[in-house]
Design goal:
The protein is α+β, with helices and mostly antiparallel strands. The protein is built from five helices and seven strands; from the N terminus they run ββββαβαααββα. Strand 4 (about 45-55), helix 1 (about 70-95) and strand 5 (about 100-105) form a beta-alpha-beta unit. It is globular, with a radius of gyration of 16 Å. The mean pLDDT is about 85.
């Protein structure tokens, strides 16, 4: 299954600021005339965490939190194409590694990160529950990742999600929780 999305290009392997291995991809949106960078972190137990940002935000410490300002009629189709492109990248990884599981954290917007505007949703560890991106991603992945192949594990309190591959017998509940804790540690320490 290949979804309607943008053409992406693999850019090779690297290591992020926390020494986590990653694969990098890029794509260009002809709808909004912007380039994107996708980083897929490679964690233990065949867990791949997809994250993306605009190329012109690549030097910002808040690159995962920034949104694209565009007219809504353009943005809806664009958002769907971006999500489809990320899904196509994940499906390519899954074809290469049939044990691959996938995770993501719905990064908060600036408004959601602001204690004056969103205090009720900000946790003591600085994670943020119920982010807009988490709600969108959670609905989206249910459509394309079958429960026969993937168990959907939702960490609502921190806006994280894990698509646990059912054929990966090594990845149990305890390791899923370890993934969650590692992701939070990685994301919070890099902000």
């Amino acid at each position: 299954m290949i979804l309607n999305g943008y053409h992406y290009t693999p850019k090779g392997s690297d290591i992020d600021s926390n020494n986590t291995p990653l694969e990098r991809f890029t794509f260009k949106s002809d709808i909004v005339n912007q380039q994107y960078i996708v980083e897929v972190l490679i964690l233990q137990h065949d867990i791949y965490v997809a994250q993306f940002y605009l190329k012109n935000h690549r030097l910002s410490g808040k690159r995962f939190n920034l949104l694209l300002d565009n007219p809504k009629e353009k943005n809806n189709k664009h958002v769907l194409y971006v999500l489809n492109t990320i899904t196509n990248i994940c499906l390519e990884i899954y074809r290469k590694n049939p044990n691959a599981s996938f995770g993501f954290m719905g990064a908060p917007t600036s408004k959601e990160s602001n204690p004056k505007k969103n205090k009720a949703n900000i946790n003591p560890d600085r994670t943020i529950k119920n982010t807009k991106r988490h709600r969108i991603y959670s609905l989206y992945v249910k459509r394309y990742f079958s429960p026969e192949k993937f168990t959907h594990i939702v960490f609502d309190q921190s806006s994280c999600y894990l698509l646990k591959n059912n054929s990966n017998s090594k990845l149990d509940t305890s390791l899923s929780n370890d993934y969650h804790n590692q992701l939070i540690k990685t994301k919070i320490s890099s902000n």
